[in-house]
Specification:
The protein is an alpha+beta fold. It is built from 2 helices and 12 strands; from the N terminus they run H-H-E-E-E-E-E-E-E-E-E-E-E-E. Strand 5 and strand 6 form a beta hairpin. The radius of gyration is 46 Å and the shape is elongated.
């Protein structure tokens, strides 16, 4: 009986070893399968970084220095200063109506909240020099980027003016007009009833024995648009039917 017991113990040991792996499979892997990565696990791995991929800077991609920049309305940064695209009247115009409003069209809308009459200057201008102080007026901004300067009083025949748009005027993004923009125009004669008249001439009509170096002087009843007094177009001296060249001196206007 002692010998017969050994095979039984040996078989029992083999049977226990054969069952051990099965027990391990049953107890270990079912628990591990619960922890396998799934949809919930992906959320857990990303954590806060997934909600804000760029960290604190992701709330403001450009950091502190990237405060929202002013734009031109199209979503892109606007760093281009405005310019004057056109005016009416324009440089060199004459016979401008006496009740003319001065129109300035900019390359883009301007900031009306910062716009004032001080951004513009209308001044009487004569022979390249200002005459008196700037004249008052009001602004009509309803057509922005076209701004109308409305003089407080009508012009007078023969007046010449210089109009200036001042540097510093801003667009909607805060960019400023880089430099003054100026133009000169004349209000010479817009009404035939107000046409200028010649008051006197020197030498007088019919004078004789006039020295050959005598200056010819024409005096009008009001100031004249200087660019309208030209030889031989509007003023002509003839000798034997041929025009004689002359030089204009407008320093004594209305005498030329």
């Amino acid at each position: 009986m002692h010998r017969s017991a050994r095979p039984s113990l040996f078989l029992a040991a083999l049977f226990s070893l054969a069952l051990a792996p099965a027990c391990l499979d049953t107890k270990v892997f079912p628990d591990a399968s619960v922890d396998e990565p799934g949809a919930d696990a992906s959320t857990t791995v990303l954590g806060d970084a997934g909600q804000n991929p760029t960290g604190d800077a992701g709330q403001n991609p450009t950091g502190d220095a990237g405060q929202p920049q002013k734009t031109d309305g199209g979503g892109s940064s606007d760093k281009t200063p405005p310019t004057v695209a056109s005016t009416s009247p324009k440089e060199g115009d004459f016979d401008v109506p006496l009740d003319r409003k001065i129109s300035i069209t900019f390359s883009e809308p301007v900031d009306l909240a910062k716009l004032s009459t001080s951004d513009f200057e209308l001044i009487e201008w004569w022979d390249g020099n200002p005459q008196g102080s700037a004249l008052p007026g009001t602004l009509d901004t309803s057509g922005n980027p076209t701004i109308l300067f409305v003089p407080a009083a009508n012009f007078t025949v023969g007046d010449e003016f210089k109009f200036t748009v001042k540097a510093g005027l801003q667009d909607l993004a805060g960019n400023a007009l880089a430099a003054d923009f100026s133009f000169v125009f004349d209000c010479a004669s817009v009404d035939p009833a107000q046409a200028p008249q010649v008051k006197a001439v020197l030498p007088a009509n019919g004078a004789s024995a006039v020295p050959t170096n005598t200056a010819i002087v024409i005096t009008f009843n009001r100031k004249m648009a200087q660019n309208s007094i030209t030889a031989p177009t509007t003023v002509q001296l003839s000798a034997g039917g041929s025009p004689v060249a002359m030089q204009r001196d407008a320093s004594g206007d209305p005498s030329f």
